[in-house]
Amino acid sequence: MPDTETWANAGDVFTYAKATVDDDAVLRAQATIDLHAGRIFADADRIGGRDRYWLKLAVAYQAAWQSSQPDLFERQDITTTGGSNSTQGTPTWMVLAPHAAQALRRVSWIGSGSFHVRAPNEPTDQRREVYGDDGGDPGVWSPV
User: Fold this and answer.
1) Cα separations in angstroms, 130 against 46, 87, 112, 120, 125
2) What is the pLDDT of residues 34-71, one digit of tens each?
3) Which of 8, 76, 83, 123 is within CB 3.0–4.6 Å of 56 for a Cys-Cys bond?
4) pTM reported for the whole predicted model
5) Using CA atoms, how far apart are residues 45 and 136, in angstroms rounded to an integer?
6) Distance between CA atoms of 129 and 85, rounded to whole angstroms?
7) DSSP-assigned states of every residue in 49-107
8) Rounded to a whole number, what is the largest CA-CA distance in the chain?
9) Distance between CA atoms of 128 and 121, rounded to whole angstroms?
10) Which has the closest alpha carbon to 55: 69, 41, 67?
């Protein structure tokens, strides 16, 4: 096992994506998911159980998909070429597995893109309710 902890392991990749990968492949997938999620495993104790589940799925799907993408780390970001007809995909379509992207959209801090605006009479020391918060997130708002 690599020195770094990951959201998923090789067994999870086989369970969810029916692909056989090694620990290094999971670590590479983890790094890609961390870039897109904006969170690292070191913060796992501050992330709710639902969010950890979606991150596990994202890493598992990414590891399976990356194994069939031999040029993944060498691709160029090209949007058009010459006069031929081409279609542009999502901003992440060349680097993020489709199911991994779907799982990441369910993570609470990525999902809706909305945020809570406190009412004038709402206490400032009250826990915020966040989808995916099962008690592991301290969740206390503080003024900016």
Assistant:
1) 13, 37, 11, 19, 15
2) 988 988 898 888 889 999 999 999 999 999 988 888 76
3) 8
4) 0.62
5) 6
6) 47
7) HHHHHHHHHHHHHHHHHHTT-TTGGG-------TTS------TTTTTS-HHHHHHHHTS
8) 60
9) 14
10) 41
For 109-138, the pLDDT digits (tens) are 876 555 555 566 656 555 555 444 445 445
The radius of gyration of the chain's CA atoms, rounded to the nearest angstrom, is 18
Query: Is the alpha carbon torsion for 27, 47, 62, 74 positive or negative?
Result: negative
CA atoms 13, 15, 19, 24: torsion sign: positive
- Which residue type is seen at 117? V
d(CA 23, CA 63): 10
**Every domain of the chain and the residues it spans:** 10-75+92-105
**Rounded Cα–Cα distance for residues 138 and 140 (Å):** 6
Q: How far apart are CA 74 and CA 131, in angstroms?
A: 36
**Side-chain half-sphere exposure of 144, counting CA atoms within 13 A:** 2
List residues bridging with 140 in a β-sheet: 127
